[in-house]
Batch of 4 targets.
Target 1
Amino acid sequence: MAIETFNLSIGQQKFFNNGRILLQALPNLESAITDALSVPCNLTTITRKPKNKPSYQGITAGSLNKALRNCINTIPNINGETHVENGIFFHTTKEGFDFSIYDKQHNRARLYNYYLGSVGILNGDTKIENIHKKLKLKKKEWKQEIQSISSSLPANSDYIVEKKQLTVAGEFQFGNWALVYRDLFRLLNADSNPGIDFYIYITASNTLSNLISSNTVSYDKAIDVIEENLSIIKTPIWVIGLDIKK
């Protein structure tokens, strides 16, 4: 194995469910994503020896995933690993979307209402205090925020915050080809609660696809699977096929 520098760029792209139209309603997102994915990256190379074929120098999916996470984190207001639990966005090591953009105040309101709102849950006042780690907050800071919200509301009332930002979720996928079905199931599940307004799916195309492995998710395979399931997928989607040059 060795580390070499490669230049990434968007090789192919396609939109579904009026994704191109909705992207225009997300100021600067297209240019921010394009710029973040069009940079030099240090990637780990590996010698691949396919059966009955000549050996060749490929790259590891792990190093590519790590590099892309670093690239995408340069975009303002973007969140890293994001999973949905009870209709609320959290950031822990639990598997979820690779990145997201959402209205954090609206998300906090949904969280408060789940635990302490007009319906609430049993022992919600105690349970809500113990989720500060999922929000990457100090317990004292989170407790003060809960008390601030509670003091401004009548007992057993919902905290109403108008959503002011579209919700974006995104995924990098360079693993086994069957994982595209799992990714779309996660999208369907999250789209019903709390709701995903725009989905970005980033995978490999052309040269990059050949350098990773033959049995991984590729741009063409992702397009085929999405087209087969458009009757149930209603979320606007932007599929990006990344390419690479040494």
Note: The mean pLDDT is 92.
Target 2
Amino acid sequence: MKNLNDVLSGVDEVLNSAKHGNFEEVLTRTKSYASKATKKSAERLEISRKKIELLDSKTKLAKAYEKYGALQYQAHLGEEVDSDATEGALQEIQLQKTRADLLEKEIAELRRIFLEGLSKREARQYEKQEEKETKEKIDSEITE
């Protein structure tokens, strides 16, 4: 994708071509711009979807740690603890840790591919937006 000035100058070229009767070129360029925009939107949507999956996995991981901790505390107090429940909690921890690690790698790769398709200016803007969103998320978690 191009920065805003390049896009606007591209639109001017397209409109000038249309004035000179080259409508086929106008349609081709319009389709090209639309195709690029659609592709970038789909890439961002996929990254967002993976981030949501990652948050879900981390939530499940936290619950599995909590369950395992509660079982261990019961055992420490000398209470009888179901070994199947303890084993199930351990398996859930391992499953969610593995899932979270894989999702983080997928997100990093999708993000790398997405950023490669942007201009340097657009990439900086995207990274600043991500940093802002991360900071807002952390701030909201602290205040809860």
Note: The mean pLDDT is 84.
Target 3
Amino acid sequence: MRKRIAVFMLAGAIACLTACGNADPGESGDGLSGSSEKEVSGGSGKEEQEDPSDAAGTGSLTSLFQQQGAFTRFCSTDGGFYYLTEKETELADGSYAPHLMYMDYASCQEVYLCSDSSCQHNTEDCTSVLKGATLEGRIFIWDGYLYFLDRDADAGGTVITDLTGETDIEAEQAELYRMNLDGSGRELVYQFEAGATVEDLALGGKEGIHFVTKKLGSSRGDSGTYATTSERKLICLGPDAGQAKTVCSLDFGDGWSWEVIGCGGNRVVLKAYRYPEGMTEEEASALDSDQYMEVLKNSSIVYAALNLDTGEKKELLTQSGRETVSALVLDGYLYTSSQSGDDIAKTDLVTGKQSILCGLPENYLYQTLGNLLCCISYDSLEDGGYYLVNPDTGEVSRCSLRNQSLDFPLDLMAVTGNRVLAVYDYEYTDLGDGSYEIDRYQYGLIDLEDLKNSVADFVPVKMIGEGI
């Protein structure tokens, strides 16, 4: 297990979802190896009038990481669902490690990701054991392989209190592993640049897998020591070249920190806060929490599309930082909403054309579910249901189903054909103070039409693990 300096992180933020469509594991190659990096040209800078993604080198980008509430270490194929356990269990040698688990959709059975029927799953030889995996590690599917990105925590933009009295926040070297879908053949295929932090993002395209890396530093401000970032860039691990190339810098010289929130075609979607009176991200990070929240109220949230083939960044729209907002990216469009209105706006990433998809009071854009937008109320305590929106027609279906034991919202995890994998029940321990400890998350498959019509016809997955 890697050694790590314990830090407490504090950051002010307002709610804004940052996700895009589900992964498609069959679009690009593999064969990643090595760790060298080279610069490439950003292109001519001219904006096309029509989408060149089919002909250009970047191709149609897809997001490879998935997230649903507290669930971040999972991925899925048409055949089954993978997750990396949060809890480490004891191995035969006395050490501890997490496990890779698999749920087969056809048999509705959960198993360890191991094909040896005699295995006890308690040694490093077991393909389900990922000894030394960090808590920030992520798994994803790409081109018929299962990948594990082992990375350090991203402290960028946070205020730091270090119990040791030191402020060295240089990241441990991140590593990328690849294995077959049954867990066999695991190999280290790439080591990222030493000292670089890898952000919580992976995009697949024709040229390979894209990651965002940066260097971390520290500076003193009114609120204490805070983490700074530099040399932030989008890199691509090519399927054949065996090395990474820099696609483009994400430091655009405007003093803002542009976050990648999604992708579509040959474009990545960026979001940044435009602070008042020319304040930079570094200056805002140096404020204490109360000052920072006040600055946010007087800021704008800017969305832009970056064309990876030309290097041109085109602003799409702005929202007020004074209100709670949300955004999702799906199939070449940016969808946005705000708490102050009912509309869900739809913006074409290529043309920038905007339209109103539908009016919906419960219009917080929570996640995508296959080719649907999944919305909730901005005040989810008043209305815990889901609203499934067709992004082509604006048609809305309301799902009022809740967790069977504790009446919490469902966790909608994955789509396979016309069925949805969901966490619909818990095994739990009542702690007696109004709180609960979840002992097992019960997964089940439900027909999409039943979900839309609030028919609780779940086919349970036979669980052997805790489910997270």
Note: Helices lie at 281-285, 289-297, 448-452.
Target 4
Amino acid sequence: MGNVFQSGAFLQQCFSVHPLSLNFKLFTLPDTIGIFCMNCKSRHRLTVETITRIIGDAECSEEGASTKLETCASHHQEAVHVTEVSVDRDIVQFRCRECRVGFQTTVSRFETYQP
């Protein structure tokens, strides 16, 4: 069994060093998101408080955002990618290339599992 770290610093590091290696793997309602880093083989698990749809630079709505993210995750998971990680603000943003929709999540707990 590998190491488990309760910090967003590892996700921040992966995003800073090799952002294209982060793959969105799962979204389980109501609050769990899984991200896998192909480069370092780390698995990042996020427990989210809120999910907001974003359009351009403006936050749009929390209503229906988790349902929309669930739809993207189940129908075209490979199109969902990480666009921003801010551990200081406890925020991780995603974008669905296929739907052209952005999501901002407020994270209450970061966990990283390293092999």
Note: Residues 79 and 97 are 5 Å apart (CA to CA).
